[in-house]
Amino acid sequence: MTSFTTVQTAAMQRALRAAVSPDAPPGPNPRVGCVILSADGDVLAEGHHRGTGTAHAEVDALANLATTGASARGASVLVTLEPCNHQGRTGPCVQALLDAGVAEVIYAQDDPTEQAGGGAAALEAAGVRVRRGLCAQEAARLNRPWLLAVTRGRPMVTWKLAATLDGRIAAADGTSQWITPVAARHDAHRLRRQC
Question: What amino acid positions are annotated as catalytic residues?
Answer without folding.
Answer: 58
